[in-house]
Amino acid sequence: MIGIFDSGVGGMTVARAVEKLLPDYRITYFGDLARTPYGSKSPATIVEYAIQNTEFLLAQGAKLIIVACNSAASVATETLRQRFTVPLFEVITPAIDKAIIATPSGKIGVIGTVATIKSGVYDREITRRNPQLKVYSQPCPLLVPLVEEGWLDARETKMIVRRYLYPLKQKQVDTLVLGCTHYPLLKELISQRIGKKKVTLIDSSAEVAHSLKAFLETHPEIEQSLAKVGENRYYVSDVTSAAAAIAQMIFGRPIQLIKT
Amino acid sequence: MIGIFDSGVGGMTVARAVEKLLPDYRITYFGDLARTPYGSKSPATIVEYAIQNTEFLLAQGAKLIIVACNSAASVATETLRQRFTVPLFEVITPAIDKAIIATPSGKIGVIGTVATIKSGVYDREITRRNPQLKVYSQPCPLLVPLVEEGWLDARETKMIVRRYLYPLKQKQVDTLVLGCTHYPLLKELISQRIGKKKVTLIDSSAEVAHSLKAFLETHPEIEQSLAKVGENRYYVSDVTSAAAAIAQMIFGRPIQLIKT
Q1: Domains of chain A in sequence order
Q2: Is the peptide bond before A37 cis (omega within 30 degrees of 0)?
Q3: Can you tell me the ipTM of this complex?
Q4: For chain B (length 260 residues), average pLDDT per consecutive 10?
Q5: Rounded distance, CA A1 to CA B215, Å?
Q6: DSSP, res A149
Q7: Catalytic status, residue A140
Q8: Stated pTM of the model
Q9: Count of C-beta atoms within a 10 Å radius of residue B178
Q10: Which of A7, A190, B86, B91 stands the most exposed, by the fewest C-beta atoms within 10 Å?
Q11: With contacts defined as CB-CB under 8 Å, which chain A residues touch B160?
């Protein structure tokens, strides 16, 4: 079974992408709603939570883990790889791979939470692979609360998106990484503000699903270990009405959230 | 020693008010930054956290507890009173007492987090004491993230405050309870938007300090049990730079945050 965790329900955009591209495999999801959000917390605290979440998914029978939270992926990936032996996917590397291919001018923008941007992981990894590339990062701490409030198309949201994107627009980035699993829900708005025709948006949810598919095609022993019968399960450490609404928005159908 | 807890650093407005009005008594504060915010979480989860926070403060030697978080006070006060025998103060009752006295027309507005407003505690308690009074409530989930982002005077914040306050303005409330410890930091802005001359703002931080002072004057055995020497201590379950900045904003001086 494929185990996916996130700080909340945003990571369900990853679960949805995996479900679409790889419908044969069973998914168990964990959203840490009792401690959400991670993006404003310290690296030490996020690492501790990421370890606990991985242990929970392994105990459920996960043979492969996807860290579907950019904040956790930014600061906890190395620790998780040292600590656990199962294959570990995260939302950052596939997005970086895609951004490097996508950029014509070499100017890449990255938006994310405070934890993600402060970690410097996108900048470090992109320039390590190609020192010619320029990375411009912008923390956008209000976008997660705006999505959770359901203000996807509100005038205030448009203004805040414009304000956050302004410095990246000034730098004329031609590729923009959506470095948070909530942001695909604001994709259209972000695309309009940054320049629809000129800028390619990189959605890590889709990229991680593609990367997982390629991996399974070349790793039959792992592929065979994954459960192919049963139900997908969506566990959360707290149940709130807002979470249920966002889950339904992402999947286009009601999702039963199971309290851990 | 007086124990004060909150989901984060917003409750420091209460600690500050107590420190100003009752400088002789030592305070130990706990801010649950590792699990903040509470306002978007479920009542069951908030109750669990409130019990743990109270136990922590009692273990530090608290002889009296102040629940400086409206979300926790809304849903956990009854459980805490059943479970613990120390005197328990919270930010809701003193604000209600003041609002009932302050309203000339009997139309009281309340703003707070989703958890606070959904609990219905203000409405229930105000109309229980005086069924003639009308209570109009409005959840304002974006105000806490806006304060934590430091956008105290941003145009976007003004627009969002206007949008949240619009229904209360329509109802012509003459008294407005700031039902979240973060909101005093937006007091000037809220006051301008709701109508400075016409509407009295009730800041629960100041009210709970007054209520505590009155209690200590009539309960010498409790008053004598409170520590009067030593340092005030500010514990947090996570240390973030944003928290340190807000703490400094509230106290007007740097505050040393001790990680639990």
Answers
A1: 2-90+206-259 (3.40.50.1860), 93-204 (3.40.50.1860)
A2: yes
A3: 0.90
A4: 96 96 97 95 97 98 97 97 98 97 97 95 96 97 90 94 97 97 94 92 94 97 94 96 90 95
A5: 59
A6: T
A7: no
A8: 0.93
A9: 28
A10: B86
A11: 156
